[in-house]
C-alpha cells in the first residue's frame, strides 16, 4: 500500500490543490473538453435514435477476419461492442440450467443470508440489494471462460489497444488471464439490482496516485483531446487502494456473456458509449465549484460514480444496450461509465456470466498467483469479499475440468 493511502482525506486535499495549481489553463482546458464531450453526447443520442449507439459485430466475422476498419474505428470511438454468437444458444441454455442446479443443490441462498453484509461492493451504488450470486467456480463459468471462441473474441478486443511501443510490450494480446467474476440471475419484476452510473478500476486514485497521472499525461500537461484510452502505456502499472470493491487486475474490456434473452427494460446494462470520458471526469473534479477535499463524490475503495449533481452533461448519453440473445457477449472499455436498470420489467430471467478481457501481463500474472489457490480451494476470488461459499459446494469445477488452455489462463500450467 502506498503511503498516501493511509490518510486518504489528506491525500485528496493535497492532490486537488496540486493539480489545480500545476495544470496549465485549467479553465480553458476544461471548457475545451466539455465542448468535445457535448458533441459526442449529441452523436450518441442521434445514433441511439437511429437504432443503437452500441456497435455490433458477429463472432463469425471476427473468426474469419472480416471485421472492417470502419467497424474497428466505431468500436474504439464508442468504447463498447456487442459480439454476437460467441456461444451457441444450446450451449448457454445448458450452462444456465446447470448454474441453477449448482446454486439450489448447494443451498446458496441459505448460506447467503448467514453471510449478509460481507459484500460491500454495491453499498454506494445500489438502489437495493443486487441479485448477484457470489459464485466463481461453477463448471459453466469455467467452461465459458476457457472457450476457444471466447479466447478469439478477447484477442480481437485486446488488439484494439496499443499494446507495444518504443520497444516495450505492455501485454500479450493473444494470451488471456482468466479473471474470475460472478453471475447475475435477475428475476422478472425485480427492482433491487439497480446500479447507478459508475466506472470501475479505481476512484480517488486517479487524482492521488502518480501511476494514474502517467495515464492522464495528455489531460494534465498536453492536449486533453489527444488522450488515447486505448494506449496501454502505464495501464498495467497502476496502483489501487486494496479493496474488495476494486479490480486489482488489468482488463482491456469488462464484459458478460448472455445466458438468456434480455434487452432494454429487462433490468440489464446501460452504457455511456463514449470512450474518451476520463478527460471530462478528471478535470471536472478540479473546477472551482467543487469543494476542497471532494472529488465529485469519489470514495476510496469504491467504484467511481458519475452523478447528476456533478456530471449531468455526460449522463445525457446513458443508453440501454441492444437486445441480447443467448450466447451473445457485450464488452465495454474499463473507463466506460455504465449502470444497471433499476427494474426488470420483462417476463423472463435476465442471466449472465461476467467475463472480461484480461490479457497476459505481469500485473495479471501476479494476480493469478493469488487467484489460483482460491480456485483450487473453492474460496472467493481474491478481488471480492471473502464469502467463500464454494469451499464445500458439490459439483464445483476442479483443475481436472480445465482444458490445457484453461489451465494456462488460470496460471496453473506454463504457456508453451
> What is the rounded Rg?
21 Å
**What's the CATH class, please?**
Mainly Beta
Regarding quaternary structure, what we see is single chain
Quick one: CATH superfamily?
B-lactam Antibiotic, Isopenicillin N Synthase, Chain
Q: Which architecture per CATH?
A: Sandwich
Strand order of the largest sheet: 1-2-13-9-15-7-3
How many angstroms separate the termini? 34 Å
The low-confidence parts are 120-130
Task: Please outline the major beta sheet.
Answer: 7 strands, mixed
What count of structural domains? 1
Q: How many helices?
A: 15
Mean pLDDT: 94
What structural category characterises the helix and strand content?
alpha+beta
CATH fold-level label: Jelly Rolls
What fraction of residues sit in β-strands? 5-15%
Number of strands: 16
Shape: globular
Query: How much helicity do the residues have?
Result: 25-40%
Q: What would you say this structure looks like, in words?
A:
Helices cover 35% and strands 13% of the residues. The protein is an alpha+beta fold and 416 residues long. It has one domain: B-lactam Antibiotic, Isopenicillin N Synthase, Chain (Jelly Rolls). The strands form four sheets. Strands 1-2-13-9-15-7-3 form a seven-stranded mixed beta sheet. A five-stranded antiparallel beta sheet has the order 11-8-14-10-12, with no helix packed on it. The chain has a two-stranded antiparallel sheet with strand order 4-5. The chain is globular and about 60 Å long. The chain starts with 7 loop residues before the first helix and ends in a 7-residue tail after the last helix.
